[in-house]
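tool_call: predict_structure(chain=1)
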Amino acid sequence: MNYYVYILASGRNGTLYIGVTRDLIRRVHQHREQTCAGFAGKYKVKDLVHVDVLDDPISAIAREKQLKNWHRDWKIRLIEERNPYWRDLYPELV
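tool_result:
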């Protein structure tokens, strides 16, 4: 089973949210519909701009923690390496 570390954004160079899940489509949908109160809903981070796919939960959690500790410019560089225009990747999943 795959595990996903994902980055949501409120827009290009906007607020970023990093999370981990086993069900990427369901989790991003929850963020988009604001069914879960918290940071993502408060700051309107709805665009899926980056996804890492990992094989096990330990690696996924370690990657999430790693990204959360990165400087903002490193996160932006990571996003723009694969998604230079900050396209919302969610429509491609569903």
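agent: Residues 3 and 54 are 5 Å apart (CA to CA). Proceeding to next step.
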